[in-house]
Design goal:
Elements lengths: L1 H17 L5 E8 L2 H17 L1 E8 L1 H11 L9 E5 L3 H4 L32 E2 L2 E2 L2 E2 L6 E5 H4 L2 H11 L9 H12 L4 E3 L7 H13 L5 E4 L2 E4 L3 H15 L11 H9 L3 E6 L4 H4 L11 E4 L10 E2 L3 E4 L7 H12 L1 H7 L9 H4 L2 H6 L2 H9 L2 E2 L7 H16 L5 H16 L3
Length: 424
């Protein structure tokens, strides 16, 4: 009998020693798409390894900011982790625990900043402090028709007319030349984004930055209007030039219209967000699957720029389960979890995944993401970003559509931004 009790005692002791280090529950708020649905499928493994029960609430991305606004405060929170779209980090930063204060993790190691793609962590920065951790590398990449630039007839004709080799456009001059050339061959040279949505703000910032100016910048701790009128007008006029070589309905093109035109083989080159690339590589729905070269965007007259739009995983200061929340964040950001999520459409923020040779064979756009992140630029870092975005978008669209002259649109954009900044 003593032996039986001894055996039971040892079993109990081993159970205590090797039990999962936590016994708690955390709530996580994230956007709802195929990626986060895939993440949900892996949660049982995380729960088994840590003893942390996870309640993952998924809502449409367009509703996240409002949801966080009513659920997270300085003294209370309904969630232990929330995902924040990069432009809204400044507005929520005061509610979030700085990353340097996150615990190290007992089961999953806290990742060092250098494992992430260049400039990815800047997505989580406000006022010199990282208030979260980037969870994906969302940035403009460039897509170009490989079959067209490899066509010997096109190559000969292009070089005869322009004096240099046809290829992936590396500069805005080459982009304009190649767009014009293919338009003359019955192929649209470029596909813009011109819907009255956030995507048009991103296009405006991409163009402004490439010409060497920014609508808003932080100077001395304050947000100031910094748009150079001459450079802004040049950016608008260049974009209007590209519109000449774009498909019909070019002034009302969003994601669905651009994807359809490119997949039907009607467009030579354009920017794209990484999450949408698999639609171009689906042979059941795309005539150009396997015929695309991925690269960083062409360089403007002043510099290269690629609009960044990472999702940031942030921890409310008011969370009562900070250690457990950090474990979940580190699990999500781990190399092993990334390996499981990539087949579901995940765009990792880690360099070791983006540059993995095996993944680049299947997903050649991963290397383009890494290269684009080197020149990544943010949309204006401002607590009133939604209002600023609307102002920029309104006048950008008015200018490229010809409803206003470029000069008038830029002046009014600056006037309204100055008015908004004055309300800080």
């Amino acid at each position: 009998m003593k032996k039986v009790f001894l055996a039971l005692f040892l079993v109990g002791l081993l159970t205590v020693v090797f039990a999962a280090p936590y016994n708690t529950t955390i709530k996580v708020l994230a956007w709802d798409d195929a990626l986060t649905q895939a993440l949900k499928a892996g949660i049982p493994d995380f729960e088994k390894a840590t003893g942390i029960k996870v309640i993952l609430e998924l809502v449409p991305s367009g509703n996240l900011l409002q949801k966080i606004g009513v659920s997270v405060g300085v003294d209370r929170t309904d969630y232990d982790l929330v995902t924040v779209d990069e432009p809204f980090v400044p507005a929520l930063a005061h509610l979030m625990l700085p990353f340097e204060q996150w615990t190290q993790g007992k089961v999953y190691k806290k990742p060092h900043l250098n494992v992430f793609a260049p400039n990815a962590f800047e997505a989580a920065q406000w006022a010199g402090v990282f208030v979260g951790m980037p969870i994906n590398a969302n940035v403009y990449i460039w897509i170009t028709r490989k079959d067209l630039i490899n066509d010997s007839k096109y190559r000969t004709e292009f070089k005869s007319k322009y004096g240099y080799d046809l290829g992936v456009p590396k500069t805005f001059k080459e982009l304009r030349d190649m767009a014009e050339f293919f338009y003359s061959k019955g192929i649209y040279g470029f596909a813009p984004f011109t819907k009255q949505t956030e995507g048009s703000t991103a296009e405006a910032i991409f163009m402004f930055e490439s010409f060497g100016t920014s609508p808003l910048t932080v100077q001395g701790g304050k947000v100031v209007v910094s748009l150079d009128e001459k450079k802004a007008v040049e950016a608008i006029n260049f974009y209007k030039e590209l519109l000449k070589f774009s498909p019909p309905g070019a002034l009302d093109m969003g994601h669905s219209e651009r994807i359809a035109a490119f997949n039907q083989g009607k467009v030579f080159t354009m920017f794209q967000w990484p999450a949408l690339v698999p639609q171009h590589e689906d042979p059941n729905n795309s005539l150009v699957a396997g015929k695309i070269i991925y690269s960083a965007p062409p360089v403007g007259p002043v510099k290269g720029a690629a609009i960044r739009g990472c999702w940031v995983l942030a921890m409310p200061i008011a969370s009562k389960n900070k250690e457990a929340a950090a474990e979940f964040a580190y699990w999500w950001a781990s190399y092993e979890t990334g390996q499981k999520l990539i087949p579901k459409g995940f765009t990792p923020a880690r360099s070791d995944l983006l540059l993995n040779p095996n993944y680049n064979k299947e997903r050649p756009w991963f290397k383009a993401i890494f290269d684009s992140m080197k020149n990544a630029v943010a949309r204006p870092r401002f607590t009133k970003y939604p209002e600023a975005s609307q102002i920029i978008r309104n006048y950008w669209l008015a200018a490229i559509s010809g409803k206003m002259t470029a000069e008038e649109a830029v002046r009014k954009m600056k006037d309204e931004l100055n008015e908004l900044v004055g309300k800080q």
